[in-house]
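User: Fold this, then the next.

Assistant: Folding the first:
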Amino acid sequence: MKYLLLSLLFFFNLFANDKAHTFAPSEDCKACHPLIYDEFKTSMHANALPQNDAILNAVWAKHPKHLKAERFECGKCHTPAADNLNAMLSKDQKALPDANNPTHQEAISCAYCHRIKSIEHHAQSNTNIMTNTEKNYYGTLKEHMESPYHGIVSEGNEHMQNGNVCIGCHSHRMNNHNLNVCSTNIDNQMDGANCVSCHMQKVAGSVSNLHERSEHSFHGFAGSHAHSDMLSKYVDVTFEAQEKGFSIDINNTTSHALLLHPLRMAVLKVSVTRDAKQTQLKDEVFVRVLGKDSKPAMPWIADTTLKDTMIQGSEKRRVTYDFVLQKGDKIDATLGWFLVNPQAIEKLNLQDDAVANKFHIFKEMHFTF
């Protein structure tokens, strides 16, 4: 009886939602997909709204649409399951994020991603085209599976299979000054790797408690905020001694830049230990700074790139040091990043935010000369 009631409730929600182009709550997925739900609930997808992300909230606080109390244009990708998304994107209406609206709290929901039917490519940004039927919950499993609560389409959606399901939001974003403020430049066919295979790697545990399996795709979405250790294998850090110093090579084997958002800053920290004395060498910074009138500017104002030292996709970057090594010296190299460029912390009033100020370690390597 319990499962019958859940099933009826689920299909009632879907039927009602489809008419309004809304989506079943992610909480509904927990009963059958507990492992996936627990991963998702703490992910940036589940928390991609100002109320749950201090950094996004700080940026949104500076946005002219927020200052004028107009509309949440970011909702297209940050709250796509909102019941008033059309109003958020309309120039004729006012619609801001509402912490008391359950559909806003869904952020990028389970049902939203699994109902992406196709991607429309546009110059400014892409658009996800959604299916309007409860029978089309798309997935990547090749064998046929059945659920008493919703339909499953495991084949026929190329975007799920090749990872392009992510590029509706993660491909590019052009501002009104024709500046691409955030781009993956992704090539999902490169060496068989794609967004899903890298950022949603297979981990232990069943997809569902209705169909026992040994593994499932990770729904915590490994990235710069969390679980970046899952991605470290795609970036190699190597050491080479030279006559008058040494070099550290960073080989980015992915098809996109090491960091994509212009607010972030990557740093290579290198030290040399000799006879128990450690010498910290100068940090090497990798960053992309947007600007206007020769000064750093917010993404919606910027019309140029003032500086771009970010390591690009498929790039091998060499950093040289004039520190002359001696036999037995130990070299420690740490590659990591700040989610907010330290020079922007004060401007965004994030001085007291631990996440914004934290140096996130991505990869550590140790070498001996």
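Now the next one, as you asked:
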Amino acid sequence: MRRSFLVITSLMIIASFGFGVTVMSVIGSSTPNGEAYAAVQINLVNTTDVGGFQFSLKDMPNALSVASVSPAGRTVAEPYDDTGGAGGIGAGNGAYDFGEPYSDINGNGTYDPAFAFNFNDRDTTVSILAYSPTATPIFPGNGPICTIIYSVPTTVSDEIIDLKFNEILNGDTPFPLVVTDPDAVALNTTWLNGLLTVGGIEVRLTGGGGTPGFVSSRLSIEMNNAVPVKGIQFNIVDDMDYLTFESVHGVGRGVDFSFAGNEVDGETMILGVNFNGQEIPPGTGAILEVDFMIASGTPMADITISIVDLIVAAEGGLPLPSNGEDYVFPVTTGVGDETEIPTAFELKQNYPNPFNPTTTISYSVPEASEIEVGIYNLLGQEIRSLSNGQHQPGVYSAMWDGLDQNGVRVESGIYIYRMSSSAGFSATKKLVMLK
């Protein structure tokens, strides 16, 4: 194997550089935590014939080892009929024999075997050399040409691994990045690095709930991510289509993201991205909140809602393994034939109290008015707004999940919650959060 490296490398080093448009790139991929292996493909874009190539790929941090390297896409062998066809030529010997039927995929009129691959798993990099045993080139095109199988140790989890093309120029045998034409003339090549992600992103729902015919309490979407996130997209589905999207905004680590929502075929579609290239940093907690209109005919019962079509993306749009859990959205009090219109403003004691991690605050509104309900610390500083807007007469409930406006869980202790109305009513009560 070392001898092959030396021979081909010598040919490539003495070659002059051409001017073709050639791009070699790492195709980003991902694997769940606990998987023993991860497959990474290398892609080639070429406008002229390619006779061979070599490169070294460094994984950062240095945590992976290479199990195998094999042809892919345009470097695999053309399919052939190993039964020997009508003449029975070389039937079943596991190799192509002249005269056996084959599929001439590239249309050059001859059978093309797979490229030969040699690899050397060094301490921090894998060095790969590929060439055609029959001098059949890779014809112009765009597609994968190599698959690298990495062994992933159990100590690697919830991590993004940079895969970077690397020239080895100070070793016993120099190993530069080179793509050549069939005459061993090096082509002018652009090398694009990529990512391998190991692990998943957890997305879950908290809060929400409310009254039929009115806007809900805010539903929080929390994300547990050990790696930076460039974008997120998902749909929220309720089992009976009682909820209709009203508004969405970022909180906490997602406060600098632009979030947009829309109601599509009974599902609420949410998309979040930062147009300045900023990321949601690693962490845990709420990143956005969503308000829904609860249909007037919604029964007093729990609504099961689900996160579907979840896509969480890292740098370059690479999708990260991710999962979302179902959640119970409570509809507990409503205005209708079975419920009387309240005759006075009232702010009720939260339940449960003390609480951990969530508590419900109920309040009554006897006339149409602007209502504000918020959580304050003992210094009188508002740390979370639970409701702010026009209310029709009725009995309402708001849920607090113990998070502040930035999606950070507050410390244990005594807090004040306050209700105020444009009609002049104001009331405050205390609640206790325990951890």
